[in-house]
Automatic annotation (TrEMBL):
It comes from the Bacteria. This is ATP-dependent helicase. Residues 10-35 form the UvrD-like helicase C-terminal domain. SUPFAM superfamilies: P-loop containing nucleoside triphosphate hydrolases. Keywords: ATP-binding, Helicase, Hydrolase, Nucleotide-binding. InterPro entries: DNA_helicase_UvrD-like_C, P-loop_NTPase. The lineage of its organism: Bacteria, Bacillati, Bacillota, Clostridia, Lachnospirales. One of its GO terms (molecular function) is hydrolase activity. Pfam families: UvrD_C (PF13361).
Length: 72
């Protein structure tokens, strides 16, 4: 948990930073954890909620292969 200089737990600030990170994801959001997942993940009920909070993933435009002669 995030702790203030005086040693108090800043749970609301930690929650705010967690959701700011989620909502700023533009293309893809990957959440990993080491020992135990964040307690704030329990507030997210499904993958659909994650997609809604993070924004819809943009569909990639098909790549076009260029020829060397396209630049001449």
């Amino acid at each position: 948990p995030l702790e203030a200089k005086d040693g108090t737990c800043e749970e609301e600030e930690e929650r705010r930073l967690f959701f700011v990170g989620i909502t700023r994801a533009k293309e893809e959001l990957v959440i990993t954890w080491r020992k135990e997942p964040s307690r704030f993940l329990e507030e997210i009920t499904s993958q659909d909620t994650l997609a809604e909070k993070a924004g819809k993933r943009r569909e990639a435009a098909p790549a076009a292969q260029l020829s060397l002669f396209d630049f001449l």
